Amino acid sequence: MSSPYNYLMPQHAQGRDVQQDNDDDTRQYISFTIGKEEYGVDIMAVREIKAWTDTTHLPNTPDFMRGVLNLRGVVVPIFDLRCRFGMGLTEATKMHVVIIMQVGHRLVGMLVDAVSDILSIADNIIQEMPKMDLNIDDEYLTGLVTVNEKLVALLNTELLFNQQSIEDGVMLGQAATGGK
Amino acid sequence: MPQDFDLNQFKATYFEECRELLDTAEEQLGVLQVQLDDVDIETLHAVFRCVHSIKGGAGAFNFTTLISFSHVLETTLDLLREGRVDLSSDLVDCLIRANDVLGILVHYAQNEEEIAADIWQNIAHELEILSGQKPTEIAPQETQKATSSLIASLSDYNLSADEEEEQGWGLFLENISPGLDGDGAVEKDDQGWGLFADEEPQINDSAEITSDKPHYRIRFVPEPHLLQFANEPLLLARELNTLGHCHGVADLSRLPPLNEIAPDVAYLSWTFDLYTDHDLVDIEEVFEFVIDDCVLEIERVQDSAKDVAEDKLLTRPSTEKTIHKPDDTPEKSLAQTKPVSPSPTTPDQPVVAKHEGKKSNNDTVNTTTPAVSSIRVDLDRVDRLVNMVGELVITQSMLKQQADELANNAGLRMTQGFEELNARTRELQESVMAIRMQPVKSVFARMPRLVRELSSKLGKKVDLITAGEMTEVDKTVIEQLMDPLTHMIRNSVDHAIEMPQDRLAAGKPERATIQLRAEHKSGRIHIEVIDDGRGIDREAVKAKAREKGLIAPDEDLDDDELDNLIFAPGFSTAQSVSDVSGRGVGMDVVRRNIVSLGGRISVFSTPGKGARFVMSLPLTLAVLDGMIVKCGSEKYIIALTSIIESIHPLKEELKSLMNGDVLVSVRGEYIPVVNLHRLFNIKGAVTDPAEGLVVIVETERYGYVGILVDELLGQQQVVIKSLEENYDPIAGIAAATIMGNGKIALILDVDGLAEMEHGAEKRRKHAKLQQQIFLSGE
Amino acid sequence: MGLRVLAVDDSKTMRDMVGFTLKNAGHEVIEAGDGEDALGKLGDDRVDLIITDINMPRMDGIELIKALRMHNIHKSTPILVLTTESDNSKKNEGRAAGATGWIVKPFSPDKLLQVVSKVCP
Question: Are B736 and A75 an interchain contact pair (Cβ–Cβ within 8 Å)?
Answer without folding.
Answer: yes
